[in-house]
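Bumping my old thread because nobody answered last time. Still need a sequence for this structure:
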């Protein structure tokens, strides 16, 4: 590759990362006293229902980075995706799919108990709109108290991206945008209050 070619590609690659956004808004109607450090969180990530839109590599990165970031804040985690669940394995994912969330949770109660789960974090891609290369999306992140079954924290994430070459471009960078935004929103909601040196 020539120097000129590298110079042309560099700003284009930077542009890919810059075009992925993630804006979070916490549901302020839910007053939470939940604190995650020292807790067990079982993650139900249903992002893979739309991996044809986000890119399979990006969905895997979101799940992996989320686990790393929560573990770093003293949270014990386990995670399952839709396709990894017994219901997901038996479902052909084409077009709109109704997610049997309650059934999937019941199927995984034993895993929750092994983890010692205090909370469930459920991630649902609720809406994706595609106009050519421009994609807009909305995700719902619900934190549920395992003991009561009540939602104790919830946030919507709205964002958009431009697909330059393929769905998996800059998978790690786009995933970091999602996960860092989530962690920041959880921090501002006080979910990590009491952790040592990681709140800022």
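Sorry it took so long. Here it is:
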């Amino acid at each position: 590759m020539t120097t000129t070619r590298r110079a042309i590609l560099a700003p284009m690659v930077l542009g890919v990362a810059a075009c992925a956004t993630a804006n979070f808004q916490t549901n302020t109607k839910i007053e939470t006293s939940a604190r995650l450090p020292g807790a067990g969180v079982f993650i139900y990530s249903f992002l893979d229902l739309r991996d044809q839109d986000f890119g399979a590599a990006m969905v895997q990165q979101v799940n992996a980075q989320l686990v790393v970031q929560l573990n770093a804040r003293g949270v014990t985690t386990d995670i399952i995706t839709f396709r990894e669940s017994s219901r997901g394995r038996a479902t052909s994912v084409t077009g709109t799919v109704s997610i049997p969330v309650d059934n999937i949770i019941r199927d995984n109660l034993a895993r929750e108990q092994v983890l010692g789960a205090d909370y469930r974090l459920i991630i649902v891609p609720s809406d994706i709109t595609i106009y050519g290369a421009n994609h807009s999306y909305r995700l719902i992140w619900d934190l549920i108290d395992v003991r009561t079954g009540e939602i104790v924290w919830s946030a919507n994430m709205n964002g958009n991206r431009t697909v330059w070459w393929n769905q998996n471009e800059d998978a790690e960078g786009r995933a970091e945008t999602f996960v860092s935004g989530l962690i920041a929103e959880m921090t501002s909601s006080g979910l990590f209050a009491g952790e040592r040196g990681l709140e800022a």
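The CA atoms of residues 70 and 147 lie 20 Å apart. Let me know if any region looks off to you.
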